[in-house]
Amino acid sequence: MCLAVTGVFAAWVISLPPLPLEHARRGSITVVDRHGKLLRAYAMADGRWRLPVDARTDVDPRYIGLLLAYEDQRFRSHHGVDPLALGRAALQLVTRGHIVSGGSTITMQLARLMEPRQQRSVYAKLHQIVRAVELERQLSKDEILDLYLMLAPFGGNLEGVRAASLAYFGKEPKRLSLAESALLVALPQSPERRRLDRHPDVARVARDRVLRRMVEEGQISNEDAARAMRMPVPRLRQQMPILAPHSTDRAISILKNRPAIQLTLDSTIQRSLETLAHDRAAAMGPDISVGILVVDHATGEVIAHIGSPDYFDERRAGQVDMTRAVRSPGSTLKPFIYGLAFEDGFVNPESLIDDRPSRYGNYAPENFDMKFQGTVTVRHALQMSLNVPAIALLDRVGSSRLSARIKQAGAELILPKDEAPGLAMGLGGVGITLSDLVQLYAGLARLGSTVPLREIARTGHGSEPDFRRLLDPSAAWQVGNVLLGTPPPLNAPRHRIAFKTGTSYGYRDAWSVGFDGRYAIGVWVGRADGVPVPGQLGRTAAAPILFDAFARTGKLPLPLARAPRGTLVASNTKLPLPLRRFRPAGDLLRTGGEQPLKIQFPLNGSRIDASDMVSESETTLLPLPVKVAGGELPMTMLVNGISVGEIDSRRQRMVKPPGKGFVRLTVMDATGAADTVVVRIQ
Q: Are 546 and 261 in contact (CB under 8 A)?
């Protein structure tokens, strides 16, 4: 008989399906910041919140101590079943005629959670025992505890201590108080009857029972228990964390099947700037939206991403990510016009330039205030965002070249259909996103090279970032140095942040983008639907938010990079004669005479082998002859925008190449006329 029963039992055990471990480990998708802090979790398909948890790092040790002392004192020593606890439960059943306590270990409770059964019976208990033994054979004690803490019910659609702590206390379980720990120990025993949002008084009684028993067993003192019992019990559930909603939505759309995603964001800075955007938008009106993007320009990692001031505000179109919306940039592209002018070597920050009425065909640019300031320095023209000088430089640089260089740097300019780049793009007649604009300004901070912006953290070492050329280092430094002197908003510190503001036509978009030695930050203010906001300027609406954003990063501004070697830094009177005053392209044509300036050698686009073998292991570069025809002496020679001296009376000069690769050679004559060739040194 005994053998038959044993055989039937063995056959039953063998017939049981494998433990559903894979199914049990499925939980909510979680998105964390660069430090592993939760940004946002997504409910499971059936609406349950179930967050992964590590008992050793994610939970207050005092809670673990209370849980094991109350539920399973011999958890670390038994093999899934505690005979003493089962014996006590059996004795209570015999003496009282009904089940008083189940005698279940944490492992047995986990088995029941993995394979739920509606009724409590001897068969159900036997099933739990068998499954508990299987669990102990397949998993470590820490793995069993982690899985229990993830699946334990806490009322409603909350499963696991982490989901419960966030929903009831608004914090991670690693920071639980004694009263909160005792409450979370009590809830899983009867989660629906003790739901805090429905039966808080019942939950309080259960919590106090746990505290009294812990006093009896010497786990806590009477004083600590009394203090914990005086603490109120939460009566409402809190909203689950939802930081950086636009970033997290995009991340899970890209990584659809990944249960845990890490972003490059910093949750502390993100939370602070979300509050800033919300408060400033509320002060400006019910329809105003704000976008903010913070980037570590050394790596291209996005530190904070605020797509709107309130994700759930339908009136502000809160779910539209304004960092990725195409808008008119106003004057924020001007620094790149000046950068190309510096790179070409026909102008310097201290050069003089005329701010006077000008016409280019049917186009006659005007300054924002409809006034003209006469002759000013290039530095002043950029800092004051004068339109006329910027268009004069763009006419010399070339609209198509500006557009191509911005595209080469990884940003995209959106032109009206079937329209080619024109002078109007210098004042905002083009579309761009805040994300691309910040990437370009980060390139200025990096002395001329951009890297793609990145929000999803790399796994492992990954590949090297894709560096792209924006400007020559000296030109980028000169732009940053000029922008550092731009007058800041009222009461803001001077010479800390290099920044530029912009206002689009019709007051539809207000911008401010800037950088220090660590971060590049961009701010956009306006209406998501593109309706004008009269009187809204980049300087008054966006710039104050920009400076507040830098302050709320919690770090003092770092100084900008030093000037690259060979950068021409001089007063106007000490500049080479052709650089002292900018001559518009039209003036050059009128004064160029019959023999316009032309570099005869080397030819534009040519490849030149300048290598000279010094020894078997060492080579050097030979000087390169530059020959010029036409033009008016004296003439200045520039290599990659840096002056290297004057052309001699025979209209030639030997130039030492700075290295192998592409080199820009520019010659400028006494009238300001210039010619440039780009050659490749091999």
A: no
- Helix (H) / strand (E) element for 159: namely strand 158-159
CB 131 within 8 A of CB 117: no
Q: What is the mean pLDDT of residues 93-98?
A: 57
Q: What is the pLDDT of residue 284?
A: 96
Active site residue 121: no
| More confident: 586 or 455 | 455
The proportion of the chain whose per-residue pLDDT surpasses 90, expressed as a percent, equals 62
DSSP category for residue 542: I
The catalytically annotated residue of 71, 159, 350, 455 is 71
Whether residue 95 is predicted with pLDDT greater than 70 in this model: the reply is no
pLDDT value of residue 96: 60
Whether the Cβ atoms of residue 432 and residue 503 lie closer than 8 Å to each other: no
Any residues with CB less than 8 A from the CB of 594 and at least 6 apart, and which?
none
Within 13 A of 643's CA, how many CA atoms are on the CB side? 19
Query: What's the mean pLDDT when you consider all of the chain?
Result: 89
φ/ψ bin of 488: left (φ > 0), alpha (ψ from -120 to 50), beta (otherwise): beta
Q: How far is CA 677 from the centre of its chain?
A: 39
Helix, strand, coil share of the chain (percent; to 5): 35, 20, 45
Q: How confident is the model at residue 27 (pLDDT cuts 50, 70, 90)?
A: very high
Least confident of 64-78, 273-287, 564-578, 590-604: 590-604
492, amino acid identity: A
Q: Name 666's Cβ contacts closer than 8 Å, sequence gap at least 6.
A: 344, 345, 346, 637, 638, 639, 641, 674, 675, 676
Instruction: Outline where DSSP puts E strands in 582-660.
Output: 598-601, 607-608, 611-613, 619-621, 624-629, 636-639, 642-646, 652-655
Residues ≥6 apart with Cβ < 8 Å to 566: 474, 642
Question: Residues 104, 331, 385, 643: which is the catalytic one?
Answer: 331
The predicted structure's pLDDT at residue 8: 57
* pLDDT, tens digit (0-9, with 9 covering 90-100), for 331-377: 999 999 999 999 988 899 999 999 998 888 888 888 888 888 999 99
> In this structure, how many other beta carbons lie within 10 angstroms of the beta carbon of residue 130?
17
Give the pLDDT confidence score for residue 592 in this predicted structure.
45
Q: How many angstroms separate the Cα of 407 from the Cα of each of 214, 411, 472?
A: 67, 5, 16
* Dihedral sign from CA coordinates of 471, 476, 478, 484: positive
DSSP notation for 400-435: HHHHHHHHHTT---BPPTT----GGGGGT-SBB-HH
Instruction: Based on the residue annotation, tell me whether 594 is a catalytic residue of this protein.
Output: no
Confidence grade of residue 13 (pLDDT, cut at 50, 70, 90): low
Q: Which residue is listed with tokens 């806490």?
A: 154
User: For residue 160, is it left (φ>0), alpha (ψ between -120 and 50) or beta?
Assistant: left
Distance CA 612, CA 621 (A): 6
Contact call for residues 150 and 187 (beta carbons, < 8 A): no
Please give the structure tokens belonging to residue 624: 């390169």
Cα radius of gyration rounded to whole Å, the chain? 35
Q: Determine the average pLDDT of the residues in 589-599.
A: 66
